[in-house]
């Protein structure tokens, strides 16, 4: 996904994050196939000056077979 308004560094970090999110999605599907129900919960929110922030997530087992 192209974001012309992003700097090269921002675009690179976003792409790395998107790839890791896909890896998380793969792991989530594998956990479900292994008989787990998983919920991602926001553990905290990381802030930076200027109003920038990102959610820090934590997986929680909701149900297991």
Description of the structure:
This protein is of the alpha+beta class and 65 residues long. The protein has 1 helix and 2 strands. A two-stranded antiparallel ribbon has the order 1-2. Strand 1 and strand 2 form a beta hairpin. The longest helix has 26 residues. The model has no long low-confidence stretch (mean pLDDT 95).
Task: Give the topology, please.
Blueprint: H1 8-33, E1 36-48, E2 52-64
Antiparallel strand pairs: 1-2
Outline:
This protein is an alpha+beta fold and 65 residues long. It has one helix and two strands.
Tell me the span between the first and last alpha carbons: 38 Å
Give the class from helix and strand content and strand pairing: alpha+beta
Walk across the major sheet and give the strand order: 1-2
Radius of gyration: 15 Å
The overall pLDDT, averaged over residues, is 95
Could you tell me the number of beta strands?
2
Count of helical segments? 1
The H/E string reads HEE
Helix content: 40-55%
Report strand %: 35-45%
Identify the notable features of this structure and list them briefly.
single chain; 65 residues; alpha+beta; two-stranded antiparallel ribbon; 1 helix; 2 strands; 40% helix; flat
């Amino acid at each position: 996904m192209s974001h012309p308004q992003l700097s090269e560094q921002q675009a690179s970090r976003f792409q790395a994050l998107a790839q890791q999110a896909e890896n998380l999605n793969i792991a989530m599907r594998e956990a479900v196939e292994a008989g787990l129900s998983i919920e991602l919960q926001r553990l905290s929110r990381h802030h930076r000056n200027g109003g920038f922030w990102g959610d820090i997530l934590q997986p929680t087992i909701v149900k297991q077979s």
